[in-house]
Amino acid sequence: MNRIEYLQHDRAMTHKWLSCFDGSVNATVGIGPSSETFWIKDFPLPDKYQPDRLSLVLEVRNYPQDPPKGIYLLTTETNRNLIAALKRKFNVFQDAAFHGAKSIQGYEWICIGYLNGWRFNGRAPHKGDNICKMLQHFWCLLEE
Fold first, then answer.
1. Each residue's pLDDT tens digit, 7-21
2. pLDDT (0 to 100) of residue 3
3. Which of 19, 54, 24 is nearest to 39 (CA)?
4. Which residue from 17, 77, 80, 113 has the least number of CB within 10 angstroms?
């Protein structure tokens, strides 16, 4: 498989995972036109967060060799309180990013490490680390 096929595989796995959440059939998963971004509109959040969903972007320029570096959240008027809550749990930066990630104007960047390193399995992408598993890890951290 090539890089684009891996991204498409991750998009399908992520969509399948998101469809398990109540009301998440409306979550949309996509790959940017240059295949350097992976995005989710209406990513569901655990019940304790309001709003209970948000739009996020992952920079996947070097995927699958490297994991996405952090998670970008679209800054809107409706999610300012949500971002403040996330700042109590994660390192969140407005219009800035670190560890080789690019800053994106209008987005907050969450510094999130991925478990104990990145172990992608090209022969069986569903068995190794992948974008869907990283997003599941992020959701579990939110749930704690």
1. 999 999 999 999 998
2. 94
3. 54
4. 77
Report yes or no: 68 and 134 within 8 Å, Cβ to Cβ: yes
Tokens 């509109």 label which residue?
Answer: 41
HSE (CB half, 13 Å, CA atoms) of 105?
Answer: 0
CB atoms within 10 A of CB 96: 13
- Answer for the pair 32, 82: CB distance below 8 angstroms, yes or no: no
14 three-class SS: helix
Rounded Cα gap, residues 78 and 106, in angstroms: 14
Residue 40 to residue 30: CA distance in whole angstroms: 6
Q: Domain locations in the chain? A: 3-143
Half-sphere exposure of 78 (CA within 13 A, CB side): 8
pLDDT digits (tens, 9 = 90+) for 98-119: 888 888 888 999 998 766 788 9
Q: Are 20 and 26 contacting, i.e. CB atoms less than 8 angstroms apart?
A: no
The four Cα atoms 26, 27, 28, 31 give a dihedral, to 10 degrees, of -170
